[in-house]
Structures are given as C-alpha cells and as structure tokens.
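Hey all, sorry for the wall of text incoming. These are the two entities for the joint prediction.
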Amino acid sequence: MSPATLLDAGLLHLLDRLALTGRRAPAAAAGGEHRSARRGQSVEFADVRPYVPGDDVRHIDWSLSARSGRLFLRLFVAEEERDVHLMLDTSSSMAWGAPEKLEQARRALAGWGLLALAQRDRVLLHTSTVGSLPLRGRGAFPALAEALQRAPTHRAADLPARCRALAAAARGRTAVVFSDLLDERWRDALLALAQVDLTLVHILAPQEFVPEFGGDLRLVDDEDTVPVDITCDAAALLRYQARLATWLGDVRQHCRERGITYLALGSEHSLERWFGDELVRAGIVRS
Amino acid sequence: MGLLAPAALLAAVVVLPPIIALYMLRMRRREQRISSTFLWRDLAREPVAQTPWQRLRQQPLLWLQLAVALLLLFALARPYLAVPGVASAHLILVLDHSASMAVAEAEGTRLALAQRQARELVDQGLVGGRVTLITIGDALRIPLTDSSDRRALRAAIDALQPLGGSDLRQALSVAAALAARARGSEIAIISDGNVRLPEAFVAPVTTQFFPVGTRGDNVAITTLALDPGATGQQAYIQLQNHGPQAVERRLELWCDGRLTRAIDVTIAAGAEHVERFELDLTVATIEARLVGGDALALDDRAWASARLRGATRVAVLPGTDPYLPTALGLLDGVELVAPDAPVPADITILDGVVPDPLPAGHLVFIAPPRATEWFSVTGTLEFPVIRTSVEPSPLLQYVALGEVSVLRAVRIVPGAWAQVLATGSGAPLLLDGESAGRRIVVLAFALADSDLPLQVAFPVLLANIINALAPDAAGGAGAVSGAPLRIPVRSDVVSLEVTAPDGTTRPLRIDAGVALVDDTRTPGIYRFAAQRRDGTRDAWSIAVNAVDPGESQVAPRPTLPIGHVNGPGRAIGREVDGRAEWWPPLAALVLVLVLLEWAVAYRAALAGWWAALRDGMRAWRPR
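and here's what came out:
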C-alpha cells in the first residue's frame, strides 16, 4: 500500500510541512526497550544495557565491558524520540456514513502516523488485527498504511476492552484514539485510558447529525444490539438531535475534566483543513 | 326522527372491529440500518416485542376514529326529521310562475317565495324518491320528469320568470296521468291560488296545495284600446281596483312616446273606472301608466296600437245566405271579396259547403256537410241545447249562446287541435283551434237552422271570430307577453320583419299565411313591416301587454277546490309528514373530529412549530 492511495498528494505535501508539537522525555528510553540507540550530535548519556547482536558496535561501553568481562551498550536520550500509540476503532458502527467514518479515520490516523514517523517517533499502531505494531521512520509508512487497510470491522467490538489493552501498552505515554464512541460504555473506555496522555479524535458522519430517513422504522445496527422501533417524525428527529447534543456535551465535559484532548472530525471534513487549520489552532501540530 | 336506511348501521359490525384491531396489531415497520442504536434507545416509545398483537391501550386517536366511524355510519343510515311537506316515491311538483306571481311580498316576490318552497319540496321529494317538475305560466312546461338530479331541478326552478297566465287545467291533467303511471306519486301545487281549474277534477293521488302570498291590493289597467272615431281616435282605458280599499292613483297617457294626459283617479274598493280620451288620427300607439305602487307592477302599464293596416279580406262560400254578408258589412275593417278573387281572402267562411280543395287562409266552417282533415262528421243532432264552456274565450266575449235555439246540428268529432267552446246533446257545437298554421272555427249548425242570426249575439260572435282570426285587423286587440304571436299575413306579402319594444329587428318566416313571433317576453309595442309583391310596403303594430287581465286579481287563495279520491279535504291540507334529512350537521361534525384527530396525531410537531413560531416572533419583535 503506497501512501498515495491512502493520502492524496495535497495532504502529503501539507504533512511534509507540519510537525507534531507534543514533547515529553520518554521514560521508555531509560527502560531499555530499544535495541539500538539513535545517533546524534547532542545526545545525553542515560544508561547501559547488555549488548545484543545487531546493536551499533560504536556505542559499546568498552571500559565497562573490560571491567565486567561482558559487552555493554551505552544508551542516550534522544530529543525527538518518543512513543506514539495510535488506536483505530474498528467497531462496525465506524463502517457507516457517507463518506464512511472508518475510511476517514484511517486517513486521519495515517496522516497523524506519518507526522510522528517523520520526526522519528516510534509509532505503535493498535488495531484488532495487528495488536500493537511498532513502526519507526518515514520508511515505515507503507507498512502503517497496509496495516490500516487490512484492519477489518468487528460486529461486537468491545471498546472498553480494547482501550484497556491500549492503556496497558501506553501507560504514561502519548496515545491517539480514532473512534465514534458510539458505545453505551464509552465512559468506561475513556476511564480505562486515565494513565495515558490521550487525544480523542471523535469521528461522526453527517447523517448522524441530520438523519436522512423517516416514517415507521425498525432501527438496526451491526453490533448485535436490540432493534429500536420508532416513528421517525419531525418530533422524533427533534428529540434525537437533542439527545445527540446532550451526549456530545457529556463526552466533551468528560474529556475536559480528565485532561483528554478532544478533537472532533466529521467524516465529510477535509483532512487538509483539519491538519492545516484546526490542529494548528489547537496547538497539536506546527508548520 | 327516523332512519331512511337503518341497515347501514349493521355496517358497524364490519367497520368498527378493524379499527380496534389496527390498534392491537403491531405495526409492520421498515428496517433501517444505522451506525448504532445507542442514541435512539431512549427515544423509542415502546420496547420491541416479537408478538404481532399488543394490549389495547387508551388512546385518544382510537376514540376519535371510532367516533368518526360511528358518525359516518349514522349519516349513511340517513336520519331525518318529520316536517310539514311531502313524503312520496314520486313527487309531481306543479309550480305557478304566472304574472301574478310577480307580486312583491314582504319577503320577496311571490315567485321567489314559491321557488324557495319548491326547492324545499324537491329536497324532501328526493329523500327516497324522484321528482317531476311542471311549470305553468306563459306555457305549460315539464322541464324534468321523474328526475333525481337535484341540481337540474333547482336550476329549472330558479330559471322561472313571472310570465303569462295561470291555467292549471292541462297541468293537472298531465300530473294526474303521470301519477297514475307511477305508484306512490303525490302532487304538490305551489301557487297564489289565482289559477284556472278544471271542472270536476278528482286527483287520483294525494294532492297538496302550498299557497304563497298575502297581499291583495292591486289596481290594474284591465283594458286599453285605441278605437277610430268619427273625427279622430278614442283611447279607452278601463281600470279595476282589486284591493279591499279605495285608492287614488295618477293615470298617465303616453301617445307615441310622449306624455299627453295625466289625471288623478279615485277608485272604490272592487270597482271599475273608465276613462276616455279623444286623440288625433295621427296617433299610432298609446301607453297608459298608473303612477304609484301596488302589489303588482306589471299591470300598471298597458299598450295599444291604432289600426293602421288595410281591411281584412273575407270571402263567403257559397254566399247565398243573407245573414253573413249583412253582418260582415257592419264590421269595420272587413272587406268582402269574391271567393275566386285573384288575391285569396284572409278568411273564408264555408257556409254549409266543404269545397275540394279547401281555400287558403283561415277557415270558418258552418254546418259542414262532410268530414275534413280536422274533424269528422258522424251524424246530426236534433234540438240540441247549447251549453257554453265555463272557460272564457275571446270568441264568446259578450256572447250569450245559451239563449240561442237550434233546430238541428251536425255531430262533429274534432281532432286534438280543437277547443270546445260550446256543446249540445254531448257533441261540440262551437270549436276553435289552430292546425298547421291555420286558425279553424267550426259552428255545427246552419244559421238558418237556428235563431242565432236574430240574436244580438250574432254580430258580436262574428266580430269576435274575425278578431280572433285576424287580430291586427279589427282594432288593435293586444296579446299577452310570453304567448307566441301569430300574425296572419296576406298572400301577396313577400317579406315581413318585426321590431320588438327593445328596438331589435328581425325577419319573420311566413308559413302557410302565418308568421310567428315566438319571443314576446318584453311587453310593449311590436312593430311589423311587410313588403308586398308589387313593391308597396305595409306597416302596423300590435300591443303586447304584460298581464292577462285575470292575473290582476292577486289576492291569494288559501285553498284550492280540488277533489281527491279520498275526499276533497285532503287537497287543501299541507300537514302531511315530510322528511328533512340532516346529514349536513353530521358531516360538519365528522370534519371537526377529523381535524381534531389530525391535531392529536401531530400534537408534538404542532407544539414544536408553535414554539418555533413564537421564538421567531420574539426575535423579530423590535427591542
């Protein structure tokens, strides 16, 4: 999967001029997760760890190795390097709308991931199929795109469970969740990510704001929930829109109270404008 | 109250259960796929169940729909109220629109009141029945027979204008024939009662009379004539006060469109008043007007014309009887001509002969020896006693035939064209009528076989016959508006045209020596201009007056003396049960309930719209 099939040229060109602004010294560097430290001009010694084959021999601490009789590798803290966890909600509710919410989420996540990869962050993609896929460097973008395209939807996706899994992997780190949150346990899902530096990209379709149907209906979804019988007249639509506004208010308030960055994204919105204007204005990216 | 179609209530068994079942049956809904039902669950009014039926709950819509269905069923059962009127399977409605119906009553003209009554009777008659409409006035008409078309009946009733006289004889004969043909018929007569009734008429079915009108005050110009005198002309005006009180009115005389005389006259109640005015020979037409109002305005104006046309040419065959030429010679405007004259006579009197072929023009048969195409001769009558008809006829005006003794007469069987004016021994002795454009008069006895030539009645009868057969020739005798005007035309006339009082001129077709003016609804002077074959022109005029003299007696009659098979009393009563359906208020109530049902069904949306409207008004209101 080439980047051009997921992200069009205009968006790619825009993303080349943008960079994520979030900065936090990654504790993970001290944890020795990386097999090799990055080379750089201004590096700060952080720790040593045993040498494993494949590590850059130039970073072997020869004096310590001589004293101990074993090879040790010197580790440094690089300024740009951090872990960015990106989670795509692949519940069946995402595969709805015109344009489809899941497609918009894939493209937004790919754009976000490209920004992270371009500034040498380690990207960990969380989907239902790949679990946690670590990626580094801009050259890993095709793998990111392919993983996104392969991610199928799930009828009875358990959003809180997936969020708990994400929380376990991204504890104390940055995570971005792309979801419509259309799950009655959305609070549980967000509460599970309390220990994560979380950004929620809330994706909804225009048909969810203004339903395009009416009459005596049986409403069904693909998530094996109980159907809803309703007479969808003007009054019912008014009640639905009031209910939607209340729910959106609840989600925003929940995010505000728990330090979660809330970003709204309509499935019909232009991603160029979203990245280039809204995220810049929100201080998420800089040009 | 009753129900005309109570069986319709049985439909409740069929209609009401499905309505209730619809509320117990779950709605079959269209399936709509959405992203998640999460946000919709709180909006559903009822949980989803898989059973097709549900418990019946109290719902305003259900009760409203049941009420609408019950009201509609009740309306289909056709409830009615018993009202005075008619109730029959076939109503024969005889409606009088004669000139006397133009009397202005407090609530409108008598005709308007009669039309309103007729519309009510039609509405009642159409309740389970059909209606035949017969109108009497200028002519007997039957606009609709056995009809259930309410709109057409109403249109026919509303189109009537006050015109002509009131002759119920033929109308009742037709009504009786129609009633005998259809079972369950009933006759209703709407009139002011000033009608000419048949003798000894017995209605075969229930016959009701619905009188209209209350006023009786009326002064009429009963006669207006312009007669030639020794040195000039004389206008003869006869007035009649038909009212119960003496009245004073101004009488105006207009000569050729100019006001010439005006005098005030006082006429006692029920009395006549005669005025005569000497006029110049140059006066061609006169008009008399009574100034001031009374019940009937139509008879407050009258017209007459001077005799301006040449003499009526009369031939007598065989002419051996001395009486006829002598009497004819006494009449003004009559020229006796030879039967074989180059120009045929206008009137030929056949005294005891029936030549073959018959001469042209109008014919007067006296004791015809054989049958003709108009009548048969079947024998003779010995010493017949003359009995004249009770019906007035212009031929018998001022003629007392009852004093005439007859030795013998021929027994004549007339055709349908003839009106019998006098009978004797069960056979007609004097007939009058028209056939194929010809006026025919038949006297069944020879003058020599009676003492008629010795009676005063003889020249008067002869003058009346000449007047009737050539009305323009004997002194400007007028006609009544609405009735067709038959103009005898000389045989040498090649074209004839008429100018109506409204100024319109149109040519007339001459057929068998007679021209017909069929539209005489506008009273006044009708001017005729004829061109003869030799190029000379002839002009004369005929006055058409609005009202038959009999119509001026406008005092209404509360009853009609019509016999009935069940007793004469029934004819005057009108307390019979009629039926008035009252489905219109039911329909209005159903409409209100349907609107209410709509409001209940969409009450939430209506509330939303009302709130939006209110907010909009607030925003719009200047601060």
